[in-house]
Design brief:
The complex is a heterodimer of chains A (266) and B (196). Chain A has helices spanning 6-19, 23-51, 61-71, 179-195, 199-212, 219-232, 236-249, 256-260. Chain A is mainly α. Chain B is mainly α and 196 residues long. The two termini of chain B are 36 Å apart. The chains are: A mainly alpha (266), B mainly alpha (196). Chains A and B meet through α1, α2 and α3 of A and α2, α3, α4, α5 and α8 of B.
């Protein structure tokens, strides 16, 4: 096979150096990850409570994490089981860079101990637009815990499939869409309608979501979205009610500041 | 900028269950500290625009956070990370708004210790490489980035992209041809600019 020319190799080497992030970018990512994983742990606990009959929905970046799992299906070298946070044991590798060392956690969660904030003081994070997250085509997975979603996944029609990206060609047999995927589809439809300037359609999508998932895993995001929809509809009173409901149900939500900032000048 | 470690040296052989107790466990934070630079770089080279880069990196490590306990260790940890990064990059590329200029900005200049001239040269090189990569077929691009930029071995790349080894080599050959053509075009353009 023809090798690359020296010119090309030089160009690649220079580009490689340029594309390698500086320490500030790495630290920024590290802080974001610490905050996200801390919140994810909270979300996981909330999901567990919901699974046991509670009404608390998992949200924040915990949901983002769950969604990320949907985005990136398990590679073939992962086991089929799902675990939320037992300590992952991986033999250490040679570090590429030498950023400040992190003391391994002796606990059970994948820890970011030095910078992990206390749970109540969840740092304000950029809003994660769940409706923007692209899902992989569903793949066979181990069955989820029966009560992971409190609602039937088959009650209401999904929003238009056109809202979802085209799935890559696959030879896998079709499988049922899991509840989280369906929840996300509803919220994606609402978000898309909102962006298209159609709060009515967004409201309809949220209504559909609530009808199907009374205590869904993304209820918190749906609650925040409801405030946005009311604002977009020019209904400040409705937005205020939705905001009050949201803050009552999720007083420590990572989306709190975002929700409080909606309908400016109200 | 320190010379990056060859990624294939970053193999983290996962311990079998009995050995796991003896081996020091890696947390997701440690995985981040060891491999984030590689993930940042790969995501950019795979077409994630600078504006989305932080989000994409976070997406990768959120997946790591949730799935690290499931990682069996049949492949190198870096291979697994690349596999995740590849899919996250594809997702971010799909979501890139029409008209977005992927080359509008280059990530922060990597190292303050680099001379200004060299920093400019590196930035120009990165722009050129990314522009050429944008002309490649996505499958060729992946293979080229993983093998030529990240220096992964072909079998690892085959595992990451889920293609036979021969296919990987075929994509690499085509990508190299396209890349050389791009470099030649760039050189010709620069020669024209410099000619009186």
């Amino acid at each position: 096979m023809t090798d690359l020319s020296p010119n090309s190799r030089d160009l690649l080497a220079a580009a490689r150096a340029e594309l390698t992030p500086d320490p500030a970018a790495l630290e920024r990512g590290r802080r974001r990850l610490a905050a996200a994983t801390a919140t994810a742990a909270v979300g996981g606990a909330a999901a567990a409570r919901a699974a046991s009959g509670g009404k608390v929905a998992a949200l924040g970046l915990g949901v983002a994490a769950a969604v990320a799992i949907a985005v990136v299906a398990a590679p073939p070298w992962t086991r089929g089981r799902r675990t939320s946070a037992p300590a992952p044991a991986v033999a250490p590798a040679v570090p590429e860079a030498a950023p400040p060392a992190v003391a391994p956690s002796a606990g059970t969660a994948p820890a970011l101990a030095p910078t992990t904030p206390a749970v109540p003081a969840v740092p304000e994070l950029p809003a994660i637009d769940l409706a923007d997250i692209v899902l992989e085509s569903p793949r066979p997975r181990p069955p989820r815990p029966a009560s992971a979603s409190a609602s039937s996944p088959s009650a209401a029609p999904l929003p238009p499939a056109a809202d979802l990206p085209a799935d890559p060609p696959t030879t896998s047999p079709p499988v049922a869409v899991d509840p989280l995927t369906r929840e996300l589809a509803h919220l994606r439809a609402a978000r898309t309608a909102l962006r298209a300037g159609d709060p009515g359609a967004a409201e309809a999508a949220l209504t559909s979501y609530r009808a199907e998932f009374a205590a869904g895993q993304l209820a918190e995001e749906a609650g925040a979205l409801a405030v946005e929809v009311r604002c977009a509809a020019g209904d400040p009173a409705g937005a205020e009610r939705a905001r009050a409901t949201f803050l009552r149900r999720w007083p420590t939500s990572t989306a709190r500041a975002r929700v409080l900032g909606l309908c400016p000048g109200r | 900028m320190a010379a990056p470690t060859h990624p294939t040296m970053l193999t983290a052989t996962l311990p079998s269950a009995p050995a796991a107790a003896a081996a020091p466990a890696l947390t997701v934070a440690e995985v981040y500290d060891r491999h984030a630079a590689m993930v940042f770089r790969a995501l950019r080279a795979l077409g994630v625009p600078p504006a989305n880069l932080d989000d994409a990196v976070q997406d990768v490590f959120i997946v790591v956070h949730r799935r690290l306990g499931e990682f069996e260790g049949r492949a190198a940890l870096t291979t697994w990370l690349f596999a995740i990064a590849r899919r996250v990059a594809a997702d971010h590329r799909r979501r890139r708004p029409a008209g977005t200029q992927p080359l509008a900005a280059i990530a922060e200049v990597a190292d303050a210790g680099v001379s200004p001239e060299r920093a400019v040269a590196q930035a120009q090189a990165a722009r050129a490489v990314l522009a050429i990569l944008d002309t490649l077929d996505p499958e060729q691009r992946e293979v080229f980035v993983l093998m030529e930029l990240e220096q992964l071995a072909a079998p690892a790349v085959a595992e990451i992209v889920g293609a036979p080894l021969n296919t990987v080599y075929s994509r690499l050959r085509l990508a190299r041809q396209r890349f050389e053509q791009g470099v030649a075009r760039r050189a010709a353009a620069r020669a024209r600019e410099e000619s009186p």
